Amino acid sequence: MSDVIGHQNARVRIKDLLLRAYIGIKEEEINNQQDVLINVELTYDASGAIHRNEIEAALNYRTITKQIIQHVDGNRFALLERLTHEVLSIVMEHEAVQWAQVEIDKPHALRYAESVSVCLEAHR
Ligand SMILES: Nc1nc2c(c(=O)[nH]1)N=C([C@H](O)[C@@H](O)COP(=O)(O)OP(=O)(O)OP(=O)(O)O)CN2
Q1: pLDDT of residue 89
Q2: Fewer Cβ neighbours under 10 Å: the N or C end of the chain?
Q3: What is the pTM of this model?
Q4: Whose C-alpha lies nearest to ligand 1, atom 24?
Q5: 119, 87 in Cβ contact below 8 A?
């Protein structure tokens, strides 16, 4: 197939990564894990990945996902802002990432709300 598109930035979304962690400042949250729902969106230059069709030429979204799981699952955090910042930092450590946004929800953390989230983004 002739490659008529050339340069291509990909938008990668890791959707609804559901983990459990100690997250919060209330005693109940300090003593009990709760669900955190993580959504990551990023852009990178996928021209090489598209052209070569080889994982070595791509920004491996599985690698990023496993790093986030390793950092978050079962671990302890106070504020949602700090947890979101740390996950965003993991994503931005990958030099190929041009821009990234991370939103983390604490479902049912607030008595009368479906969920509450913090969203942070960064770019190079
Ligand atoms: N940039 C890209 N990165 C990755 C791609 C891709 O197409 N572009 N594809 C993959 C794998 O095909 C992925 O989709 C599935 O991988 P895997 O089954 O190993 O992911 P799991 O999280 O289920 O791995 P487990 O070890 O089974 O938990 C990867 N990256």
Answers
A1: 98
A2: N
A3: 0.95
A4: 62
A5: no
